[in-house]
Design brief:
about 140 residues, mainly alpha, 2 strands, about 5% strand
């Protein structure tokens, strides 16, 4: 199912708008499908958690060696990068609860309020299309 010319409901005004819209043309709401904010939160959270874990590990290794030498610096860098990547996994786990709440709200709004089962599938496709590159960018 292609998203071109697909219509979804704006989270603010509940009118049908193009699934590719970044701003609702009817009411002006930014992020009408919750996805832009979710992607930004995931990127920022993974960066902050990864930075704290990576810097903490690097500082711990250097403190354990008592001095900065090639070995301590190499371990600090390699371990720090590994823990930085681990921050992305923690961000995904932390935000998974928020994602589930949004999915339930979309399902409730689209399926029960608008009786539009097809729109639920379109939103899930848009979610996959939007969030998959965000997650891949975090890990690369």
């Amino acid at each position: 199912m292609a998203l071109d010319n697909s219509l979804l409901y704006c989270r603010s005004c509940k009118r049908k708008i193009n699934a590719e819209a970044k701003v609702c043309p009817q009411c002006g709401a930014k992020d009408p499908f919750y996805l832009i904010g979710l992607g930004r939160k995931m990127s920022l959270l993974s960066f902050v958690i990864g930075l704290v874990l990576g810097a903490g590990f690097a500082g711990g290794v250097i403190a354990a060696f008592g001095t900065i030498n090639i070995l301590s610096l190499a371990l600090a860098i390699i371990g720090g990068i590994g823990l930085y990547r681990l921050g992305a996994i923690f961000a995904i786990l932390i935000l998974s609860n928020e994602v589930e709440k949004i999915k339930k709200k979309i399902n409730s709004d689209y399926r029960y309020n608008f009786n539009d089962v097809e729109a639920v599938k379109k939103w899930e496709e848009l979610y996959d299309k939007t969030m998959t590159p965000t997650i891949e960018k975090i890990f690369h």
